[in-house]
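From the shared-data thread, chain only:
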Amino acid sequence: MKNSILTTSLILLSILSVIVQYNYRIELDARLIDAESDSSISHDLFNKVLQKHVDEGRVDYGKLKEKPDTFETYLDQLATANPKMMNYNEQLTFWINAYNALIIKGVIDHYPTKSVRKVKLFRGFFSRLKFQVAEKNYTLNQIEHDILRAEFVDPRIHFALVCASISCPPIEDKVFLPETIEEQLDEVTQKFINNLEKVKIDRKIRTVYISKIFKWYKEDFTEGYDGVPDFLADYLPPDDADFVLEDDIKFHYLDYDWSLNDIK
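Structure, as tokens:
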């Protein structure tokens, strides 16, 4: 009897080990690009993809997965690009566009799914999937935290990056470009902060309801600002800006909806 229990326990442990290893393993991009690096890149192909498959912040992942040729060609360009040879604005737009494109790539590789959180457990979508970009393999977290947040240090970037989820900043139907990046970052930040689903003011109970982005990246909003309220005030109408800066205002973080931003 004891041997039977032991055997059963060992089998269950083996099965559990396989499941855990699967969910935690690094999943590499199946595309293996072997080409010379290129110091220049055009985002025109990605712009075409966005124009065709994005509508009001939602993506038609199903149709894109059916005909991914243009998208795959753009991803091949990302894989061999050399951003180190680009100027500051070119590098910034390269990594923002790359991040957003790879988010889409990660979704269609595992589509259909109802959420990026269902692709791999414990936020593995962002930390366990690796993609070829700039001649290296990166996870989405590495691009966001080790490159964009570390090297460019601009809180507005948080509203340019998408995560394929309803509560994330909505994806634009156009790419970010070096010559207009400043205006575009201001535009997406303005849109996000003035969206009542992301930032909502209740004057009666003197409470401001805000996205959890402001909680997760709280320290980023001290770069050039005196914290989150000061940052919000910069993008709100004058009356609301004054309100959020008052001393007795409470801030409450909204629930985050990780449902896929799919067109259905």
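Residues 166 and 198 are 10 Å apart (CA to CA).
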